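Support request from a user on the community tier.

User writes: "When I paste my structure tokens into the form, the page sometimes reloads and wipes my input. The last time it worked, I copied everything first. Here is what I submitted, just in case something in the input itself triggers the reload:"
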């Protein structure tokens, strides 16, 4: 699948529109839906290709981790581990404009692209009635960044989404303007304390009142930065990029029509390559310590994000 033009359906906020949005999401299509903060660009978080297409549609140059949207606190418990502190915040503020970054449970079936290879996951239970209904009807976790092209302003109306992404996604569910208008507040946890990763629609004062303590502030960019965290995935074996030929003892992570140990996309499809990237890196890591050579990958479309991620994997380790 490539980023060729598709016809974007504008769905109305009625039973049929909600059912269609849910069906499209379940089957791997991209659907923008309203939340109380901003419009999200949703994809089935268990579908590697659908998640890869989010990055393609937005023109994102990096695989930043995405927020997974769920209809209920119970559904969130199936995906992540909550300690007492996390439970307290979830009980107080979900559904609502709060995202919690928590340890990811094993075997959830989520695409590794959603967490960008981290072993934590960002979760949110939105309050918007349409979001609630779509998520419940879809019956799958939905990964959703804001539904704007990368570097542009977040959309708070269906028209904004159409302006930015029409022709690149299957549908937009029109729920009118978003009430909050800024993205959710993101809270992570470190050393048994809540940490503010991104200020947003839920006031910090409300969080502090609930916790009874001030929040530590930590820019999320620092956490997401390359190689800063042991949990940020890079294979143990050395990685060599832009390998035109294979050296002795190397394993090849291929792209395009080459003989390779694992191939990101034999046909040279960048969306397919993105969908396979973390799976193949994990598999190569589990398969031994021999150095990994990577075929050249064109630096356009999702190739930019793939190359960005591979450069981080290849960077010297501390
Ligand atoms: O209001 C919102 O939060 C909107 C609506 C659609 O829900 N969504 C949104 O998603 O703003 P997005 O992709 O623009 O923001 C995701 C951000 C990442 O850039 C990162 O800062 C943080 O969430 N994040 C996600 N997963 C993380 C993780 N495992 N560790 C640290 N930060 C994480
Ligand atoms: Mg955004």
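"...and here is what came back when it finally went through:"
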């Amino acid at each position: 699948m490539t980023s060729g033009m598709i016809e974007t359906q504008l769905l109305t906020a009625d039973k049929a529109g909600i059912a269609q949005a849910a069906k499209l999401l379940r089957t791997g299509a991209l659907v923008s839906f309203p939340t109380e903060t901003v419009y999200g660009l949703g994809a089935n978080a268990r579908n590697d290709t659908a998640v890869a297409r989010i990055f393609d549609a937005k023109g994102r140059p990096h695989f930043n981790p995405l927020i997974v949207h769920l209809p209920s606190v119970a559904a969130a418990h199936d995906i992540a581990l909550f300690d007492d502190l996390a439970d307290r915040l979830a009980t107080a503020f979900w559904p609502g404009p709060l995202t919690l970054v928590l340890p990811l449970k094993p075997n959830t079936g989520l695409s590794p692209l959603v967490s960008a290879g981290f072993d934590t996951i960002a979760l949110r239970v939105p309050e918007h009635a349409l979001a609630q209904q779509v998520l419940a009807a879809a019956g799958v976790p939905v990964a959703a960044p804001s539904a704007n092209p990368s570097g542009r302003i977040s959309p708070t109306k269906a028209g904004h989404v159409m302006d930015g992404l029409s022709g690149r996604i299957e549908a937009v569910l029109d729920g009118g303007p978003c009430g909050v208008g800024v993205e959710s507040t993101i809270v992570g946890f470190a050393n048994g304390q809540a940490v503010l990763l991104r200020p947003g629609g839920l006031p910090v004062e409300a969080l502090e009142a609930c916790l009874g303590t001030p929040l530590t502030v930590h820019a999320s960019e620092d956490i997401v930065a390359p190689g800063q965290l042991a949990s940020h995935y890079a294979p143990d074996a050395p990685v060599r990029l832009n390998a035109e030929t294979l050296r002795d003892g190397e394993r090849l992570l291929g792209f395009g029509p080459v003989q390779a140990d694992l191939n990101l996309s034999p046909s040279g499809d960048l969306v397919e390559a993105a969908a396979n990237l973390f799976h193949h890196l994990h598999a190569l890591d589990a398969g031994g310590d021999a150095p990994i050579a990577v075929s050249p990958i064109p630096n356009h479309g999702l190739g930019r994000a793939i190359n960005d991620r591979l450069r981080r994997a290849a960077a010297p380790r501390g």
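Agent notes: The reload is a front-end session timeout and is unrelated to the input. Residues 239-314 form one domain. The pocket of magnesium ion (ligand 2) is lined by residues 145-146, 154 (CB under 6 Å). Escalated to web team.
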